[in-house]
Amino acid sequence: MKTNDQINNPLLSASNLKHEAIDFPKIKSVHFIPAVEFHIAEAKKIIASIRDNSAPPTFENTVEALETADEALGIVTSVFYSLLNAEANDELNEIANELGPKTSAFSNDILLDDKLFSRIKTIYDQKDQLQLDTEASKLLEETYVNFTRNGALLKGSDKEKLRKIDEEKSRLGPAFHNHVLKATNSFELIIEDEGDLAGLPESSVSAAAHAAKEKGYRHAWLFNLDAPSFVPFLKYADNRELREKMYLAYSSRAFEDDFDNQDNVKKIVQLRNDRAQLLGYKSHADYVLKKRMAETPDQVFAFLKRIYEVARPAAEKDMRQVQEMADSLGGPPLLQPWDFAYYAEKLQQKLFDFDEEELRPYFKIENVVAGVFLHATKLYGLEFKPSDEYPVYHKDVKVYEVYDSNNKNEFMGLFYTDYFPRPTKKGGAWMTSFRDQGLIGGQLKRPHVSIVCNFTKPTPDKPSLLTFREVQTLFHEFGHALHMLLSKCRYTSLSGANVYWDFVELPSQVMENWTLEKESLDLFARHYESNEMIPADLTQKIKDSDRFLAGYHTLRQIHYGTLDMAWHTADPKNIRDVGEFERMALEDKVVMPMIPGTSISCSFSHIFAGGYSAGYYSYQWAQVLDADAFEYFQEKGLFNPEVANKFRTFILERGGTENPMDLYVKFRGRKPDPDALLRRSGLS
């Protein structure tokens, strides 16, 4: 029987709103821990009944039953971590410190249960006789492997070691994230001399004036480390001293300051390595890559080396051209990191007669959103209907009901959008879900999906006008959302984006390709004042400039992928200093001088507070897939229904129910051509 506190806790029972939407305004911070504890207790009862079942173990009474045992807990934790990333406060950060160890201990209680594993192993050993369909076979395999990769075969004392490692590890990720957020928010550049704004576009100046006014400054301009403020400042501000100040503030976040992450980095790496070795792997990278398309660290290093060898000469040429541009304008004889974007922009204007600021008026956010929806309609028959009846966690959030017009207007899911930066939101852009698609409560349920970004905000006198890179980011995250919304699987653990990590970026990265095509841009790129379609010469300049600095940008990605692999293949006992380790790992990969007092690792949330440890290479890996996939669309037509249906059927609907390479071959008719990426970037 529930207590009064439990009755008043909206996280303890299914929502009674339409489509069981999350009732965000009713959720208070104090609800999370009681809800997690309640759902853990309920799940333990279900799992005990599975474990102690006197009937012989079967797929249905053990594996399938276990799949749904903690479904309610999963929804609560999904909501919590979504809010922690998008609407954080000190209370939620404190709760994260408590919640992580609770869910980690619960997970270990399941995965280290000898009796439960014995039932699963019995079924797994009989798998060839069970005549399971493809998805059920995959669930059985994944369940068995999940147990063995998480300690089921360990003996008593080693199981306790694993528990302690996981408990400590569960605290460190949120702590790292919190330090980065606080370090980012702690810096502001207040400009009071209008002369210091020279070079900055009107959009940046207007946004900075509005930001200053909101903070109570009179006749001033406020710049911060959010991307819409920071990126144009480095690209356009004539004042080199202020560019340096902004760069150093951004690049030293959570490094040797009040929110220093160096200890967190070293502890996380040590714990990951200890865990991997306890489970019989040489390193954390070996452990991770066992469940990736790349399979081994050697294959990742070989992949990165191949791309590096092609990109390095092109990057050096790019650097020479930018330096020559700086020389012609009386710039510094040796470019520093805070100079590169500034002079690269000057070079781009010279080579292509093109300033990206010219594009902003054609990318009003409402038009871009309508455009990305239209792409989903033309490719997959999806319709997005805005609705005000769903509660949200912030006034900026909008909600859409998604329907499939190609299939009797079937409801496909709820889609949430949250586009603008605020102090409570971490930087970057991401897709998340409050509920995945699959069996929930014994019924197939549709997903509730959200994309969260940090785009240029509207001001009182101007709407949100996106940069072209922001347009590409929106298409990218929307691709992830489509992976979730179009999922047609039975089991949530295999649905949507629950795929190999080096496959997960294919649906997102392939969407970016449409932003470079005139046929696509003509659908939505219209001037926010005149409603004129984007001129053909501008769309051609977008296409022509796409390969600009391709070598440099490719090498930067190799730079990050190499650092990630270095952290997760090295012996942590030999790492004394974070900055020195970075310098050694990247000494032959740097594209710009490494500046004392700065650090990549201490704010590298992808690998220390996200899911990309020993996986950052996957962005480049997926680019091979998406370049090859998009060539198929280009051959047949950008919105060719046959190709779109194949991509939907074999990539977007199947989730992780089959081997990703098998799914890709079903879509493409062959394995991906590695040279497709080099052709697209002009590096072949």
Structure commentary:
By secondary structure, the protein is of the alpha+beta class. It folds into four domains: 4-111 and 113-149, Glutathione S-transferase Yfyf (Class Pi), Chain A, domain 2 (Up-down Bundle), CATH 1.20.1050.40; 187-251, no CATH class; 262-359 and 550-616, Neurolysin, domain 3, CATH 1.10.1370; 361-533 and 619-681, Neurolysin, domain 3, CATH 1.10.1370.40. It is built from 27 helices and nine strands. Helix 2 packs antiparallel against helix 4 (71-86) and helix 2 (32-51) packs parallel to helix 5. The longest helix is centred in the middle third of the chain and has 32 residues, at 297-328. The chain starts with a helix and ends with a helix.
Describe this structure in a few short sentences.
With 684 residues, the chain is an alpha+beta fold.
Labels describing this entry:
Glutathione S-transferase Yfyf (Class Pi), Chain A, domain 2, 5-stranded mixed sheet, two-stranded antiparallel sheet, alpha+beta, 4 domains, 54% helix, 27 helices, Neurolysin, domain 3, 684 residues
